[in-house]
Specification:
185 residues, 39% helix, Nucleotidyltransferase, domain 5, 7 strands, single chain, alpha/beta
């Protein structure tokens, strides 16, 4: 068995069918040790109708918008994301968590966490959450002010651009995080 740290599965009980679902939810700081070298991170901005996707480079320095998936059935969404993750050599996920402005996790957070649990059964990748407060608003301002995009064009790119904003924030946090100090016992 490898000495490399592995994502610790977290069990969630599903009330509907009384089953247990495993999800590899980890802290952002743990991703580096859990994702194999040369693998990328996939950032997700999960909405009710679409999922914005962004991809990191292999050095985890830059996030780039990839595409926007229109949500359909959960099984179809999972399969599309599984295929994309395999094709793009993804080793971990960063999912934007829509925390309320007061810092609380409301219904939208619960919905995103449930989506992540459902996705975890198909992808089996370490998954970290990143506070996405105001990411879409910031991207909208950028697309209007600097890119001068029309409303129709903004609608096409805003979700994947928000996913890149979320992923870039997580990459910057990982880059600037201090490595855990060793215990000199």
């Amino acid at each position: 068995m490898s000495t490399k740290a592995r994502a610790k599965p977290i069990a969630f009980w599903n009330r509907k069918d009384e089953s247990t679902t495993l999800m590899n939810e980890v802290g952002l700081a743990q991703l580096r040790s859990l994702v194999p070298p040369g693998r990328r991170l996939l950032g997700l901005d999960v909405g009710a109708k679409t999922i914005g996707l962004a991809l990191s480079d292999v050095s985890w320095s830059v996030a780039s918008p990839v595409r926007t998936l229109s949500r359909t059935r959960l099984a179809s969404d999972r399969e599309a994301l599984r295929a994309l993750a395999s094709e793009l050599e993804v080793g971990g996920l960063v999912i934007g968590l829509p925390v309320e402005m007061n810092g609380r996790e409301g219904r939208r957070c619960q919905s995103v966490r449930q989506f992540a649990r459902n996705l975890g059964t198909a992808l089996h990748l370490p998954t970290a959450f990143w506070d996405e407060r105001l990411s879409t608003a910031a991207v909208e301002r950028l697309l209007i002010g600097e890119a001068d995009l029309s409303r129709a064009r903004r609608r096409e790119v805003v979700d994947r651009a928000a996913a890149a904003w979320i992923l870039q924030g997580a990459l910057d946090a990982i880059k600037h995080a201090r490595p855990p100090t060793e215990n000199p016992e």
